[in-house]
Amino acid sequence: MKTIEIKAEQFFELLKLKDTSMWSVFAQMIDGEEKEIIFLDNEEKILFNYILPVNAEKLEEDRKQFSIEFADKMASQN
Fold it and tell me: What is the pTM of this model?
């Protein structure tokens, strides 16, 4: 499995500038090989990781699950 390290702050700023979602970027990265994407802070500490699936169908399932979990977390903070 290939490992890709991404500086989280710069990545999300770029997404904002390009007006695109991380899911569309992830979709472009799918090539039939599973990849571990590691998001780092500015001090090179791991914030979180994501295993990029080998196909778009699984990516869509992950996106839906993430949306549900994110909405639940946001609701519990209010």
Answer: 0.83
